Amino acid sequence: MENRGKIQTYYCKNCKKRFIGDNGFLRMRNNPNKIIQATHMYFSGVSLRKTQEHLGVFHEHNVSHMSVLRWIRKYMTQISKFTNKLNLKVGHELMRSRTIQNLVNVLSNVRKKTGNQVSVITTDGLQGYPKVLKKTFGLKTHWNHKSRITHNIVIAFERGFNHKIERLHNSIRERTKIFRGFGNLESAKAIMKGYEIYYNFLRKHQAISKYPYELVTELKLRNNKLLSLIKLNIPNI
Fold it and tell me: Which of 143, 160, 177 is the C-terminal boundary of a domain?
Protein backbone atom coordinates (compact mmCIF):
# COMPACT_ATOMS: atom_id res chain seq x y z
CA MET A 1 0.00 0.00 0.00
CA GLU A 2 1.99 2.92 -1.34
CA ASN A 3 -0.21 5.56 0.31
CA ARG A 4 -0.12 3.83 3.68
CA GLY A 5 3.64 3.53 4.10
CA LYS A 6 5.39 0.69 5.90
CA ILE A 7 3.11 -1.73 7.72
CA GLN A 8 4.21 -4.09 10.51
CA THR A 9 3.48 -7.73 9.65
CA TYR A 10 3.56 -10.75 12.00
CA TYR A 11 4.26 -14.44 11.49
CA CYS A 12 2.38 -17.22 13.26
CA LYS A 13 4.59 -20.24 13.97
CA ASN A 14 1.56 -22.49 14.46
CA CYS A 15 -0.37 -21.84 11.23
CA LYS A 16 2.68 -20.65 9.26
CA LYS A 17 0.82 -17.56 8.01
CA ARG A 18 1.66 -13.89 8.04
CA PHE A 19 -0.87 -11.32 9.22
CA ILE A 20 -1.28 -7.63 10.00
CA GLY A 21 -2.32 -6.52 13.48
CA ASP A 22 -5.42 -4.35 13.88
CA ASN A 23 -4.26 -0.93 15.07
CA GLY A 24 -7.60 0.68 14.30
CA PHE A 25 -6.73 1.33 10.65
CA LEU A 26 -6.86 -2.19 9.27
CA ARG A 27 -7.54 -2.25 5.50
CA MET A 28 -7.29 1.54 5.27
CA ARG A 29 -5.29 2.68 2.25
CA ASN A 30 -3.96 5.87 3.81
CA ASN A 31 -1.52 6.65 6.59
CA PRO A 32 -3.21 6.74 10.03
CA ASN A 33 -1.56 10.09 10.80
CA LYS A 34 -3.20 11.59 7.71
CA ILE A 35 -6.63 10.29 8.78
CA ILE A 36 -6.21 11.57 12.34
CA GLN A 37 -4.99 14.94 11.14
CA ALA A 38 -7.84 15.38 8.65
CA THR A 39 -10.54 14.40 11.15
CA HIS A 40 -9.26 16.75 13.82
CA MET A 41 -8.96 19.61 11.34
CA TYR A 42 -12.55 19.15 10.21
CA PHE A 43 -14.03 19.38 13.71
CA SER A 44 -11.72 22.31 14.47
CA GLY A 45 -13.56 24.26 11.78
CA VAL A 46 -11.54 23.64 8.60
CA SER A 47 -13.63 22.84 5.52
CA LEU A 48 -13.27 19.55 3.69
CA ARG A 49 -11.63 21.15 0.67
CA LYS A 50 -9.22 23.19 2.79
CA THR A 51 -8.36 20.00 4.68
CA GLN A 52 -7.70 18.27 1.38
CA GLU A 53 -5.42 21.12 0.28
CA HIS A 54 -3.51 20.91 3.56
CA LEU A 55 -2.98 17.17 3.18
CA GLY A 56 -1.71 17.72 -0.36
CA VAL A 57 1.03 20.01 0.95
CA PHE A 58 2.31 17.75 3.73
CA HIS A 59 1.64 14.25 2.34
CA GLU A 60 2.96 12.82 -0.91
CA HIS A 61 -0.30 11.17 -1.96
CA ASN A 62 -3.39 13.33 -1.67
CA VAL A 63 -7.02 12.22 -1.41
CA SER A 64 -10.37 13.67 -2.45
CA HIS A 65 -12.44 15.75 -0.03
CA MET A 66 -15.10 13.01 -0.13
CA SER A 67 -12.52 10.51 1.15
CA VAL A 68 -11.98 12.81 4.12
CA LEU A 69 -15.74 12.83 4.74
CA ARG A 70 -15.82 9.02 4.61
CA TRP A 71 -13.03 8.85 7.22
CA ILE A 72 -15.00 11.17 9.48
CA ARG A 73 -18.16 9.09 9.19
CA LYS A 74 -16.28 5.84 9.74
CA TYR A 75 -14.26 6.82 12.80
CA MET A 76 -16.87 8.93 14.57
CA THR A 77 -19.29 6.00 14.31
CA GLN A 78 -16.56 3.65 15.55
CA ILE A 79 -15.53 5.84 18.50
CA SER A 80 -19.15 6.37 19.53
CA LYS A 81 -19.47 2.63 20.14
CA PHE A 82 -16.94 3.10 22.95
CA THR A 83 -18.08 6.48 24.29
CA ASN A 84 -21.72 5.34 24.42
CA LYS A 85 -20.69 2.65 26.91
CA LEU A 86 -19.36 5.29 29.31
CA ASN A 87 -22.96 6.22 30.20
CA LEU A 88 -22.21 9.93 30.11
CA LYS A 89 -25.21 12.07 30.96
CA VAL A 90 -25.38 13.80 27.61
CA GLY A 91 -27.93 13.35 24.88
CA HIS A 92 -28.69 14.32 21.32
CA GLU A 93 -30.91 13.08 18.55
CA LEU A 94 -31.72 14.11 14.99
CA MET A 95 -35.07 14.23 13.25
CA ARG A 96 -36.10 15.39 9.78
CA SER A 97 -38.76 17.81 11.07
CA ARG A 98 -39.95 19.44 14.31
CA THR A 99 -43.28 17.70 14.70
CA ILE A 100 -44.66 17.30 18.22
CA GLN A 101 -44.00 13.56 18.17
CA ASN A 102 -40.44 14.00 16.92
CA LEU A 103 -39.74 16.54 19.65
CA VAL A 104 -41.17 14.16 22.25
CA ASN A 105 -38.91 11.38 20.96
CA VAL A 106 -35.81 13.59 21.05
CA LEU A 107 -36.40 15.01 24.54
CA SER A 108 -37.46 11.62 25.94
CA ASN A 109 -34.06 10.31 24.87
CA VAL A 110 -32.35 13.31 26.49
CA ARG A 111 -34.36 12.82 29.71
CA LYS A 112 -33.40 9.15 29.81
CA LYS A 113 -29.69 9.99 29.57
CA THR A 114 -29.62 13.03 31.84
CA GLY A 115 -32.00 11.89 34.60
CA ASN A 116 -32.85 14.66 37.05
CA GLN A 117 -29.76 16.80 36.49
CA VAL A 118 -31.51 19.20 34.10
CA SER A 119 -32.93 22.33 35.74
CA VAL A 120 -33.16 24.76 32.80
CA ILE A 121 -34.22 23.94 29.26
CA THR A 122 -33.59 26.60 26.62
CA THR A 123 -35.58 26.59 23.38
CA ASP A 124 -36.65 29.00 20.69
CA GLY A 125 -40.20 30.30 20.54
CA LEU A 126 -41.87 27.31 18.88
CA GLN A 127 -45.31 27.09 20.48
CA GLY A 128 -45.27 23.32 20.79
CA TYR A 129 -42.40 23.19 23.30
CA PRO A 130 -44.45 23.69 26.53
CA LYS A 131 -46.63 20.71 25.59
CA VAL A 132 -43.60 18.60 24.72
CA LEU A 133 -41.74 19.55 27.92
CA LYS A 134 -44.82 18.73 29.98
CA LYS A 135 -44.83 15.21 28.52
CA THR A 136 -41.10 14.60 28.82
CA PHE A 137 -39.76 16.64 31.75
CA GLY A 138 -42.96 17.25 33.72
CA LEU A 139 -43.04 20.99 33.09
CA LYS A 140 -45.89 22.63 35.00
CA THR A 141 -47.59 25.13 32.72
CA HIS A 142 -50.17 26.50 35.19
CA TRP A 143 -49.11 29.73 36.87
CA ASN A 144 -49.62 28.52 40.47
CA HIS A 145 -47.73 25.23 40.11
CA LYS A 146 -43.98 25.32 40.69
CA SER A 147 -41.98 23.26 38.17
CA ARG A 148 -38.81 21.34 38.87
CA ILE A 149 -37.42 22.76 35.63
CA THR A 150 -37.42 26.22 34.10
CA HIS A 151 -38.33 26.70 30.46
CA ASN A 152 -36.08 29.46 29.10
CA ILE A 153 -37.45 30.75 25.79
CA VAL A 154 -34.98 32.70 23.65
CA ILE A 155 -36.36 34.53 20.63
CA ALA A 156 -33.44 36.06 18.77
CA PHE A 157 -35.05 39.28 17.56
CA GLU A 158 -36.44 39.98 21.05
CA ARG A 159 -33.69 38.94 23.48
CA GLY A 160 -30.62 38.23 21.40
CA PHE A 161 -28.93 34.93 20.77
CA ASN A 162 -28.15 32.14 23.18
CA HIS A 163 -24.44 32.32 22.41
CA LYS A 164 -23.47 28.92 23.85
CA ILE A 165 -25.92 27.17 21.54
CA GLU A 166 -25.44 29.49 18.58
CA ARG A 167 -21.67 28.93 18.56
CA LEU A 168 -22.23 25.23 17.89
CA HIS A 169 -25.07 25.96 15.47
CA ASN A 170 -22.80 28.24 13.46
CA SER A 171 -20.26 25.43 13.10
CA ILE A 172 -22.99 23.08 11.94
CA ARG A 173 -24.41 25.64 9.51
CA GLU A 174 -20.98 26.02 7.91
CA ARG A 175 -21.10 22.31 7.14
CA THR A 176 -24.70 22.10 5.92
CA LYS A 177 -24.19 25.09 3.59
CA ILE A 178 -21.19 23.39 1.96
CA PHE A 179 -22.84 19.96 1.75
CA ARG A 180 -26.30 21.34 0.84
CA GLY A 181 -27.55 19.48 3.87
CA PHE A 182 -25.98 16.37 5.36
CA GLY A 183 -27.14 14.18 2.47
CA ASN A 184 -28.83 11.54 4.60
CA LEU A 185 -29.84 11.02 8.20
CA GLU A 186 -27.20 8.40 8.98
CA SER A 187 -24.43 10.68 7.74
CA ALA A 188 -25.85 13.52 9.81
CA LYS A 189 -25.94 11.35 12.94
CA ALA A 190 -22.29 10.32 12.48
CA ILE A 191 -21.14 13.92 12.05
CA MET A 192 -23.23 15.21 14.97
CA LYS A 193 -21.87 12.39 17.12
CA GLY A 194 -18.45 13.59 16.04
CA TYR A 195 -19.17 17.06 17.41
CA GLU A 196 -20.23 15.49 20.71
CA ILE A 197 -16.96 13.54 20.83
CA TYR A 198 -14.90 16.57 19.81
CA TYR A 199 -16.30 18.90 22.47
CA ASN A 200 -16.24 16.30 25.26
CA PHE A 201 -12.98 14.46 24.55
CA LEU A 202 -10.76 16.36 22.08
CA ARG A 203 -11.16 20.06 22.88
CA LYS A 204 -10.18 21.56 26.23
CA HIS A 205 -12.96 23.63 27.77
CA GLN A 206 -11.62 27.15 28.25
CA ALA A 207 -13.74 27.95 31.31
CA ILE A 208 -12.64 24.91 33.33
CA SER A 209 -9.19 24.39 31.71
CA LYS A 210 -9.96 20.69 31.41
CA TYR A 211 -11.39 18.26 28.92
CA PRO A 212 -15.02 17.63 29.98
CA TYR A 213 -14.53 13.83 30.09
CA GLU A 214 -11.92 14.31 32.84
CA LEU A 215 -14.62 15.56 35.22
CA VAL A 216 -16.93 12.55 34.91
CA THR A 217 -14.74 9.57 33.99
CA GLU A 218 -11.44 8.00 35.02
CA LEU A 219 -10.45 7.64 31.38
CA LYS A 220 -6.77 8.28 30.65
CA LEU A 221 -6.04 9.45 27.11
CA ARG A 222 -2.67 10.32 25.63
CA ASN A 223 -1.85 13.64 23.98
CA ASN A 224 -3.21 12.32 20.68
CA LYS A 225 -6.65 11.78 22.15
CA LEU A 226 -8.36 10.95 18.88
CA LEU A 227 -5.90 8.12 18.21
CA SER A 228 -6.34 6.90 21.80
CA LEU A 229 -10.12 6.74 21.37
CA ILE A 230 -9.80 4.81 18.12
CA LYS A 231 -7.51 2.25 19.75
CA LEU A 232 -9.80 1.89 22.77
CA ASN A 233 -12.45 0.52 20.44
CA ILE A 234 -10.21 -2.31 19.22
CA PRO A 235 -10.71 -5.70 20.93
CA ASN A 236 -7.81 -6.74 23.16
CA ILE A 237 -5.97 -3.40 22.88
Answer: 160
